[in-house]
Write a structure and sequence with these properties.
The complex is a heterotrimer of chains A (180), B (103) and C (201). Helix content of chain A is 67%, strand content 0%. Chain A is mainly alpha-helical and 180 residues long. Chain B has one domain: Cation efflux protein, cytoplasmic domain (Alpha-Beta Plaits). The chains are: A mainly alpha (180), B alpha+beta (103), C alpha+beta (201). The interface between A and C is large, with 59 and 59 residues.
């Protein structure tokens, strides 16, 4: 029986026991999602690649601390979130004028179908949000984190997180009105 | 005077030539070897480590062995080969650790 | 729907966009009747939720467009982790010479047990643990392993084959006294055939 057909829980257990092949299967399975998430979060493919790589090395070393191996995917999301937000914070320290930074995340519209143009529109709206708002939005809506967790990760108060999220929501809802 | 680096590279070859040995690993912990890479350039050095502690030569090897041979036999053969390769008259100890058994 | 909350709030409820955003993230509890009964507020909440789910769709689409990791990047990662082998405890072996000390790592033994179990058709080993006197030559140890099996084969038979193969390999490669080998079937799965080509997706 091949490891590629094994469930997440089994692969996580084997990885925790030091099985690098099992870990590779997990990485191939969840890596593309983790990377897509990290690109939306950091706004940069290069930063995302670094954050995901660091996160996976950390995960390899800490997998034995994961209590419920069947939840390995959401655990990986939280490790990636931590590395990506660390990177955001250190970048912010060296780059004071960050709030209007809105790089294109580098995911071009190639191969998109008609039905995904709504997603293209959303992609453009997110890319133009102030960086802090976009990060709060992605951590909340994709990462599923609470205000407290987001605040802690981004070094902001809960009040600030709430404000940024509400402003992000207002902008997204308004700019996407035509697509609703 | 014995040069530990030269002795270690000779012993690398000795270990690799023992039947049943399929790989040789660094005996230094990963963190140490990363630091060593930073300070001494890329790891081109030896994998068997040799050091002299109060006049006693300490040799350590970490190996991967073939599952077709009983692992304790291979470990014993490696230790015997190492002891035989150490210049006569030197006081020495050898540590052999099997880190993988490969089928 | 109007976006202008104004001083009267959305739908004249007095609640602002911030309030609604907060309410949504609290899971709409405790319930606020004024919001729940206002069509404007309900429409706004629904839009906010839709945008959240659309964002998850967007990430899913990003993932579909880049379904493979770059092999160079992956190679670098795997190289880094392979340097950090989790060796575990050292299990001593009899040394033929007083100047030698020999051992096999717990990590090597676990790998051996996994490959012994996996060699049985229809079985994958999950976790495996060694308990007992691993740090003395000839110590008595018990082995616990969890396996995942394919439904078709009788489970007891598979577990027995795993036990025997693990025992044989441990006997060959360690000097431990093997006590019990407990095999737990943690998971039974049915092999699904891949969907036939031409299926509508």
């Amino acid at each position: 029986m091949s490891l590629a057909s094994a469930g997440d829980a089994l692969l996580a257990q084997r990885s925790a026991d030091g099985d690098a092949v099992a870990f590779e299967v997990l990485v191939r399975r969840h890596g593309p999602f983790l990377r897509a998430y990290a690109i939306r979060l950091t706004g940069s493919a290069a930063d995302a690649d670094d954050a995901v790589q660091e996160a996976l090395i950390t995960a390899w070393n800490q997998l034995h601390t994961l209590e419920d191996p069947s939840r390995v995917r959401s655990w990986l999301v939280s490790v990636v979130s931590r590395k990506a937000t660390d990177q955001i914070r250190s970048r912010r320290a060296s780059d004071e004028l960050d709030d209007e930074r809105a790089e294109d995340p580098g995911l071009g519209p190639e191969h998109r179908t008609e039905s995904s143009s709504r997603l293209d529109a959303l992609s453009a709206v997110l890319a133009h949000l102030p960086e802090g708002q976009r990060q709060c939005w992605v951590l909340k809506e994709v990462g599923g984190f609470s205000y407290e967790e987001i605040g802690e990760r981004l070094g902001m108060s809960v009040v600030t997180v709430r404000g940024k999220l509400a402003r992000a929501r207002a902008t997204v809802v308004k700019d996407m009105e035509a697509w609703r | 005077m014995i040069d530990p680096e030269a002795l270690a590279s000779e012993l690398d070859i000795v270990v690799r030539n023992v039947p049943g040995v399929v790989s040789l690993y660094s005996t230094a912990p990963a963190v140490v070897s990363v630091v060593r890479q930073l300070t001494e350039g890329p790891e081109g050095g030896t994998l068997v480590t040799v050091r002299s502690v109060q006049g006693v030569w300490q040799v350590a090897a970490s190996i991967g062995v073939a599952s077709s041979v009983q692992a304790p036999h291979t470990a014993a053969a490696v230790s015997a080969a190492l002891l035989a390769a150490i210049p006569a008259g030197l006081e020495a100890t050898v540590t052999v650790r099997i880190s993988r058994i490969l089928s | 729907m109007t976006m202008d909350a104004g001083s009267a709030g959305i739908g004249e409820t007095g609640f602002t966009l911030d309030d609604l955003s907060d309410y949504l993230d609290r899971g709409r509890t405790p319930a606020i009747a004024a919001i729940d009964n206002s069509p404007e507020c309900q429409a706004m909440l629904a839009s906010m939720e839709r945008m959240g789910s659309l964002t998850r769709d967007l990430v899913a689409q990003d993932q579909r467009e880049h379904p493979m990791l770059e092999e160079g990047w992956l190679g670098g990662l795997l190289e880094s982790i392979s340097r950090e082998v989790r060796a575990g405890r050292d299990i001593p072996l009899t040394a033929p010479d007083p100047r030698a000390s020999l051992s096999v790592t717990e990590g090597a033994i676990r790998e051996l047990i996994r490959s012994a179990g996996d060699s049985v058709d229809g079985v994958l080993v999950g976790s495996c643990t060694l308990e007992g006197d691993v740090d003395v030559v000839g110590g008595l140890v018990t082995v616990d392993l969890a396996i995942s099996v394919v439904l078709q084969t009788p489970v007891l038979e598979l577990a027995e084959q795993v036990r025997q193969r693990v025992y044989t390999r441990l006997l060959a490669h360690t000097e431990l006294s093997i006590g019990t080998i407990d095999v737990t079937v943690s998971d039974v799965h049915i092999v699904t055939r891949p969907a036939a080509d031409g299926d509508a997706s």
